[in-house]
């Protein structure tokens, strides 16, 4: 099934003068395809044999296609079409589980998305009005002649839509709800796939269509990046649900990714940094969600004693969570390294300092989860839980044990993606060379 | 060869990971001892082949060429003593662990990983490689403290440790990036950067860079006022963890100063040398005074680490005050600082292992709970006295050589600071004598808390085999300092030449 899924998602080569086939597009496609493969494997336990299995797989693939289209779009109209293609299947996917929370999440996601879509369309119209063209090259040329104020408003509107897709501040509020409301497998899809396309699309739009002297977008993006990482980290502290926590963590990760976008065109490392970090993020994030899917626990406390029950899975969890922090030798560390280097090179030292502080702050909540995984479950009564609570947690554990073993797909996906995340770190040199050597 | 030294413990760890956990302490700790001995032999081979100048046993591979990162290993007179120290301490800790530990498999695997990482850090000649090992040491030590400490306070101490030192390491990373981007081309290679000297001009940017790198290293060292993570981490860690934390991990900070801050940022180091001197002296006094106030043996030893690391910074800072002193004095100070790193590693590890043995018998570190140990447990009392005298810098021990060189070297450049720092030796002497007076003579008194084992035996063979070699080495280095100084001095001169540019 996985092999056919891979073959099915591979789109025919299409170049209509609006779709660029370059390193960024190819890398986006590669990341999206491999991630989709991992995601479909991850969903094996949830959907295999399910009545609407086909529906699920088709929706994931359509979403992946949208993400790839976003990554290569070099025309405002195509950008919007890709935006819709990347969004609509995922709205349906969010509601796929048909539980109470999933319906609510889907509705929230859809409403936020509809608003973002309208805003984007308005922005596209404004940019078209100012520049008189929709192709990026035409926009870049036309925008210098048009009124700067209108161009700025148009750009902000388009960015709002892309920020929604990427789950960045200020359009991030749906992320924790969707992550918590849907099954972990679906949450993994929604927090990983569209981000890849959206960030590459943002990079391409800003780099090739909007000259920085017309609209000061580097500062704008830098502020968005700073807000994303800081607000998401602050919000993540108080979470007790592991899925909400991971949801906020994905928002903070977008903040780091946007740092590379903020120096687009000004630092030679910016584009390879973005692409590499995206790949690192995609695998590490999928690994984290896969562990949660394998344990089927929605709370942080539910992961207590994971190290005792399933040491391999616990190690994968540590690799994924510390990977998201950026601890060596996982891929995200090298992602951060190149992103920080690019950002300092582009003159955004303050943003890098903020990112460093944020990384340390993020340790608080990631370590809370790791500490939980490595603590014995509360079976002894000398802790402050009462007897009822203790027996309750024992029942919990028994239930959970059967849970982990009955989800082999999620478990193996977690182990596999965590291993890839490590491998990507060790092979960072090769990968970076492929995604673009700076001059 | 160096790769083998670095990755050998990791290979053993991988091999051991398939051994079932029920095999017991003897198998795991035994394998660990053997690993350490093999590593020592390999290091001896490298030591024999060390060239008179420059780096020996260099290995270099392109790793991430587009970001200027390479896999570059090599040793010189500054790194080789610390590499050997790491192997010695890990082997001693392994012998000590033979006594038994809860969940031996995870414990030994973590320490083998730490052993690999520590060796890697001291031979890394690439900033990112250095950072990688630096960061990984934090991760593994976090699990040691959180997993084998005692209960909730240990987890809190582990978290504090992780947050503090991780902040430090990220500051270090930021500093590295700032430093590298100042050069004509992006390269994290340490010798290449030392040659280029990209921030020779000084200025605000260079000042910022040295500040950020300095903070990163100061947290790990730890220097006042960045030392607050250290006492809880030491108190809550198991004895083997404390020994490695104090003996090796703290040295990563001071080693970073001689390997990175001084040669790569010479202009700024000269500019801010006085800051290093002042911070060093404050750490000396603060550490000694706070240690004096402790009633908990382990906390007391922990604070003396702050004091001893302060001497190192004093020496390194003095070496940066180029104008005020002769070249010979500065070489003396730098060599003394390096000597102090080795000496402190040996002595403090011995002290922590002794404290751990005491805790095993009495279940408390409270010095007031013990008395008359000289008659009840003469071997413990004797070794504790030796370690205490070594730590306070009595002539005949390595600490004396180190401190003497630092003071002699620093006196010309920073006379007032040096004179103040000497009083730190007095306070240290007082606090060790006081602790011995409390615990060793007089009527026998052992803790009577519930859960305390009735018999209060003296040190066993395995404890002796772990602790005695450390103290013997400290004595040998105190009596025959040339053995080590012949290796350190040429490298110290090289560093000083780089600083004086």
UniProtKB/TrEMBL annotation, chain A:
Name by which UniProt lists this protein: NADH-quinone oxidoreductase subunit N
Subunit structure: NDH-1 is composed of 14 different subunits. Subunits NuoA, H, J, K, L, M, N constitute the membrane sector of the complex.
Swiss-Prot/TrEMBL keywords: Cell membrane, Membrane, NAD, Quinone, Translocase, Transmembrane, Transmembrane helix, Transport
Subcellular localization: Cell membrane; Endomembrane system; Membrane
Organism: Pseudonocardia saturnea
Task of the protein: NDH-1 shuttles electrons from NADH, via FMN and iron-sulfur (Fe-S) centers, to quinones in the respiratory chain. The immediate electron acceptor for the enzyme in this species is believed to be a menaquinone. Couples the redox reaction to proton translocation (for every two electrons transferred, four hydrogen ions are translocated across the cytoplasmic membrane), and thus conserves the redox energy in a proton gradient.
Domain NADH:quinone oxidoreductase/Mrp antiporter transmembrane residue range list: 73-360
Reaction(s) catalysed by this chain's protein: a quinone + NADH + 5 H(+)(in) = a quinol + NAD(+) + 4 H(+)(out)
PANTHER family (alphabetical): NADH DEHYDROGENASE (PTHR22773)
Taxonomic placement: Bacteria, Bacillati, Actinomycetota, Actinomycetes, Pseudonocardiales
Automatic annotation (TrEMBL), chain B:
GO biological process: ATP synthesis coupled electron transport; electron transport coupled proton transport
GO CC terms: endomembrane system; membrane
Recorded GO MF terms: NADH dehydrogenase (ubiquinone) activity; NADH dehydrogenase activity; ubiquinone binding
Transmembrane region(s): 31-50, 80-98, 107-125, 131-149, 161-182, 202-219, 239-260, 272-293, 300-321, 341-359, 380-401, 407-434, 464-484
Stored InterPro entries: NADH_Q_OxRdtase_chainM/4 (IPR010227), NADH_UbQ_OxRdtase (IPR003918), ND/Mrp_TM (IPR001750)
Keyword list, A-Z: Membrane, Oxidoreductase, Transmembrane, Transmembrane helix
Enzyme class: oxidoreductase
Membrane protein topology class: Multi-pass membrane protein
Record-listed E.C. numbers: 1.6.5.11
Domain NADH:quinone oxidoreductase/Mrp antiporter transmembrane: from-to ranges: 124-428
This protein's name: NADH-quinone oxidoreductase subunit M
Organism per entry: Pseudonocardia autotrophica
Taxonomic lineage from the root: Bacteria, Bacillati, Actinomycetota, Actinomycetes, Pseudonocardiales
